[in-house]
Amino acid sequence: MNGKRGRPLIGENPKAIKFQFRMDFTTLDELDQCAAELQVTRSDVIRLGIQLVHKQIVFIKNSTDERGQVK
Question: Which residues pair with 70 in a beta bridge?
Answer without folding.
Answer: 64
